[in-house]
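Q: Here's a chain of 153 amino acids. Please give me its 3D structure as tokens.
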Amino acid sequence: YVILSGSGFVLVFGLIWTGVLTLLSRTGGWHGLAKEFPATGRIQDDNSKMHRWCSARLSLLVNYNNCLTLIVSQRGLYMRTNMFLRFAHRPILIPREAIADLSSGSTLFFSSTKITLSRNNDATPKIITFYGRGLAPTLAHWFGEADQEDDEG
């Protein structure tokens, strides 16, 4: 009877919800990315583009469907979850130089963009697949500019 009371339900639900979010963050790879690429300082600039309600696959086990906000700026690719999933999901800022490759593709229903991260602490490259309307051209434009800057320097 105590669990069915209002405060008991809220407490049990809160414990289960935070446990599930922690498990998703660790098994899906978000925790590791946030540790390696923490978002600090001002993210947006005059040329940044924001995309809301995007989706991403970080691993075979976990998809983040329609719950991500992505900001593409000069500093890099900023990712955060919506407010209901924030626990155990710190924002991520992947710098442009950490992206080794970008490729576009499509499935039967969706277009996708895959980025491959070059990581110092892991020999296995990390691949993140993004889904979202209008996101592919933004990422391609952003990554293309990064390549041109590398070629000039």
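Q: Can you summarize the key feature?
A: The CA atoms of residues 106 and 112 lie 5 Å apart.
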